[in-house]
Write a structure and sequence with these properties.
disordered N terminus; 4 helices; single chain; two-stranded antiparallel ribbon; alpha+beta; about 120 residues
Length: about 120
């Protein structure tokens, strides 16, 4: 008799669990907060900015540029000039360093790739 009641109770509990899981996701049923709900401070600001399509701390991979005069490599800077290093060939071990100034696109003195300095505001 007790065994039948235990089996019937287990069968009812499993049916109720199946219904609850089908209606609500597991983490919501257990009361576990999502990353968005428990993030605070800098992490929360970063997640909110990423939802809006912004990249506040340059987390994402930069866009690929061809390096021509029409499509120069974009170099962000908070100043009006920046030191840039160019690996002119893929397997080259020597880096060509030059100063990039605000204004039009400038060429690398060795290979001729174009770079353009773009003013970048800090997110905080």
């Amino acid at each position: 008799m007790a065994a039948r009641l235990l089996l019937r109770a287990c069968a009812l509990n499993s049916q109720q669990l199946r219904r609850n899981v089908a209606v609500r996701p597991f983490h919501r049923a257990m009361g576990i907060p999502t990353d968005d709900e428990q993030a605070t401070g800098l992490e929360r600001r970063t997640l909110e900015a990423l939802k809006q399509g912004k990249d506040p701390y340059s987390i994402l991979k930069p866009k690929h540029y061809t390096g021509t005069k029409e499509d120069p490599h974009i170099v962000p800077s908070i100043n009006n000039k920046r030191l840039v290093g160019c690996l002119c060939e893929e397997d080259n071990t020597a880096i060509v360093w030059f100063w990039l100034h605000d204004g039009d696109a400038q060429r690398c003195p060795s290979c001729g790739s174009h770079y353009k300095l773009v003013h970048h505001e800090l997110p905080h």
